[in-house]
Design a protein that fits this description.
Layout (H helix, E strand, L loop, with lengths): L5 H7 L15 E6 L15 H18 L4 E6 L3 E8 L2 H12 L11 H11 L5 E6 L7 H10 L1 E6 L3 H4 L6 E5 L6 E5 L3 H21 L1
Parallel strand pairs: 1-2, 1-4, 4-5
Antiparallel strand pairs: 2-3, 6-7
Helix pairs in contact: 2-3, 4-5
């Protein structure tokens, strides 16, 4: 009865009820990987993985501001070096863009993707649209990703480069692990070795797809 529009009802001669549509505020959260493996340079014209991921995160942030949506983020490498709760406004947008553009002077080796996902779950108090931008070349992220997706709408974006899929035949080449500084001489001219490299990557991609 309280929702009846009495003026319109009197004019039209039959009951008219006011219908209210609640505005739903979409909250956005970005989980951004800046670990060392995101900066491998393949020597081709394609941008390194972090550059592509940062461009994507910047576009999501700007789209959130244009639509008046609160946006927050967590950035990590071997440790979490920045996090903030979702808020709306130009100040929050500029803060996130600044952190995307200027990484910490001292970077920590390794990747704490799992901890970043757990931290995002603690920060977010209501259902949000979460973008996880990473190459997923680490361990221990599967369970935190699943738990975060159970309470939020989650988009997992896996960034790749050419070396992830196939190595060129260059003879014996010294490789350094970007995460641990471990160095090894690998036989890139060996067909068997290149096949193992390809199979390993396909196994990682399959595991990522299965968890998603």
């Amino acid at each position: 009865i309280r929702s009846i529009d009495w003026n319109v009802t009197a004019r039209m001669g039959r009951p008219f009820v006011k219908v209210f549509e609640e505005e739903r505020e979409l909250q956005i959260f970005i989980v951004m990987d800046s670990s060392a493996s995101m900066f491998v340079d393949c020597g081709n014209k394609n941008p390194v993985k972090y550059a592509a991921g940062a461009n994507l995160a910047a576009l999501v942030t700007l789209a959130a501001e244009m639509n008046g949506c609160p946006v927050g983020a967590v950035f990590f490498d071997g440790q979490i070096h920045f996090s903030c709760k979702p808020m709306s406004g130009k100040e929050r947008t500029m803060l996130l863009l600044t952190h995307l553009d200027k990484l910490p002077a001292q970077r920590v080796q390794g990747s704490v993707l799992g901890n970043a996902l757990i931290g995002a779950g603690k920060i977010l108090r209501k259902r949000s649209l979460v973008f996880v931008i990473s190459d997923f070349r680490t361990a221990g992220w599967e369970t935190p990703l699943i738990k975060l997706a159970q309470k939020n709408d989650l988009v997992a974006i896996r960034l790749t480069d050419d070396f992830d899929r196939m190595l060129p035949s260059l003879g014996s080449v010294t490789f350094k692990d970007m995460e641990s500084d471990l160095k090894m001489v690998l036989p890139t001219s060996s067909a068997r070795f290149r096949e193992e490299w390809k199979n390993r990557n396909e196994s990682m991609v399959w595991r990522w797809k299965e968890n998603c």
